[in-house]
Amino acid sequence: MLENSLAEKLIEQVTKYTSYNVNIMNEQGVIIASRNPERIGKFHEVAWQIVHGTTDIMVTENDNEYPGVLSGINMIIEIEGKREGVVGVTGNPDEIRPIALIIKMAIETLIKYENQKMQAFRRQTRKDRFMEMLTQKQYRAPQDIQKLAAELNYREDLIRIPILCHLQSASDQEAFLHSIKNGREHLTQDISFQMEDRYILIFKTLKGEHLFSDYKFLLADYLKSTLKWMREEEICCTFYVGTFQTSFSQYYYSYQHCKWLETHIFGEHQAFYFYDFIGEYITSCIPRQELQQIFNVFAQKLPEDFRKNYIEIVGSLIQNNFNIQNAARQCFMHKNTFTYRYNKIREVLRLDHQRSMDDTWMLICLYLYLKL
Prior knowledge:
The protein is α+β, with helices and mostly antiparallel strands. It has three domains: 106 residues, 2-Layer Sandwich (Beta-Lactamase); 127 residues, Alpha-Beta Plaits (2-Layer Sandwich); 85 residues, no CATH class. The chain has 13 helices and ten strands. α3 packs antiparallel against α4, α10 packs across α11 and α11 crosses α12. This is CdaR family transcriptional regulator. InterPro entries: CdaR-like_regulators (IPR051448), Diacid_rec (IPR008599), PucR_C-HTH_dom (IPR025736), PucR_C-HTH_sf (IPR042070).
């Protein structure tokens, strides 16, 4: 349907370059835009015949040959195979035929352009809504997410993993997203958003026989061209990679895993992967009240110097995968000194990480409680 506002805009643009009177009629044959405002709203018999017939061009030699029609040329406006309306140019048909054809082509081109802009706007509006559904817990209704995903042509059955990109400067957002989307490995099923502040969120589609072992290499290949562009432009960004998902209703949690990495894991690396810190995440999920109910007597009865020693020694062991030599190095101790202090802990609690996994978990959980 040819909108009045669009027709008025078209007349405004076209008449900048011609002195001829140009009219645009809708599918009911009514003049909806004209260089001559007095003609707007009047019925145009020829336009109605063209829209509802098979003739694409009709020439009128004399004024009022048809009701409400002046001499000139009237041509169909056809968009994507549909007869949307008619454009008419008033004047001597022999003189205006070349310019009339150019005006017709210009108007059809402008309509296509405006339609494409509107479609892009509507898609972006839907995509913004889709982003809210995926990243905000209150929008987790599966049927709503699935319906909107179908409108955007996103399949749910694919394996995707989120990449939360935190840029140092908000001014780099658009250029960064443009670089991502123009990368050789960016697929039509990859979902990417520009978020508030300095963030870009990508749900990257991954596949392959060795997906779970090779996903870091696949993501490195995906980001390769963008990383090169970042180095050239001296742009800084940190990447937080969440968890695999195949259900849109679970994407919220995957995104939250990225946010957990951002707030809990620090270092000089440019990229952090959630599955590398699964132990720290699980232990961070233990409610403080649970630890209090289990270990409150330990805190009351163990001497303060023992608790301080425990936090230092066991904490360094946890950070070094219970490798005594590496833990001693982290504490700037000789290995024998570190072992002596660790043995004091084992004697009091009868715990040894080398004896059983249960002892290891006991050491970790007590450390978490005493540290709190």
